[in-house]
């Protein structure tokens, strides 16, 4: 269907022809007649299908016929780039209609605020605004939407994701209920439907190719680690004829490094991120739109805020966080039934994101791994179709053994908190393994034997592992209590983990078993740990060797604590 077939005002038709709009897209063909009939509308279509013209053209037609003397149309958008883009399109379409418009957004200089204030006070025909900035003006008391006729929510899903729902509802309360409301979105989750039910009145619905990339996009996935991305990009750029390219990165810290690398290869590239002033960002986009700039390196700030024709290449330097953002990014190319190439670099941590993208677009994308053959080293390994791969995380990834709930190798059953560990895990309920240079029983009097480990002459214990976590916990509880009172055993049960020392009878002295001697220079590491932070050992206090208890009878009495220096005490709350 051509635009000449629509019933449009003659002045508007001249503007549409001057903008070189000839054939209507499917969303335009269905939406324009419904809007002209005054219906509320929910329209869902992918980026690049002409949604902006689908609501601007019929609304300008209404303005041309009615000749309003007040602000008739309010368009709410998520980003300043999109606000500026729509304002530019209004200027083009309405050149012969003489409709006025202004974009209301933050980030500019002080004189921008004054221009916005004057436009709101005098009443431009169309106001395109970001919700936060508009509310800031409304709080000053000079914004009047009492006669507003049309409300448009563009990229509604993005606005809700950015947390603008409360701001939008606050704005809606200040405008007449007897209005026409249009909601345009690239996706249609449940939250959009519930939100639309609050502000729309019996809307018509148009749903076209939800979140599916255009058929003309050649989607290429390259597996690359973070340090391989830049050399891989330089290699690919040398093999492609790039006329106009947008490169998206999720980290603004990468923007300047990528721009410098491209400049070294002779490309004319500039970066756009939130660090730039609004005027600088607009200047870069203007150069790109006028073909004075070959490549723009940008963060997500441009994923839905750029309207440039004939973009031949889109590069995802990082996989976007949301699958929908992937569709919006690559939707910058292959617009209006043209073709384009979309390249995405995928590292180890992005395998799950790639899986969600494939689920959304209902298509399996081929993984290309060429870093090793290019001499950049081996790249990430792609997971199998039915397995999330070795880089996956989460509750369903246990079979590959990286922390999944049901993992048998590498999950909780091996090294996890609930472990009955089969391979290399530490079971806190299992008996401890003592360091055993030699384990023999030493005969005692009357044919009795002791469980104390006998060592070869001159050999001492270097490490003893407790047989139960409870021993370790008790050691920690004693830490910081000061020296142990004379005669008190190291363990209240008077036994080591494996029962190596029997309980002493009341009043009996702890001696050294036959054939074993005490080495004053050797101490058990566990005893050394307990004495940490207590200061030097008092003179005369003995140590233990090879699991033999200290002879407390031979210990010197502990020195008395002198409290004289403490003159005052205060109660600690």
Question: Would you write up a description of this structure?
Answer:
- This protein has 573 residues and is an alpha/beta fold.
- It folds into four domains: 3-208, 3-Layer(aba) Sandwich (Rossmann fold); 217-368, P-loop containing nucleotide triphosphate hydrolases (Rossmann fold, 3-Layer(aba) Sandwich); 393-425, no CATH class; 431-502 and 513-554, no CATH class.
- It has 16 helices and 16 strands.
- The protein has helices at 10-18, 26-36, 51-66, 80-93, 110-122, 131-138, 156-161, 165-172, 190-199, 226-239, 255-264, 278-289, 323-330, 351-361, 469-478, 525-530; strands at 41-45, 73-76, 101-104, 126-129, 150-153, 180-185, 204-208, 217-223, 245-248, 269-272, 295-298, 313-316, 340-346, 367-368, 442-443, 449-450.
- The protein has a seven-stranded parallel sheet, with helices on both faces.
- The longest helix has 16 residues, at 51-66.
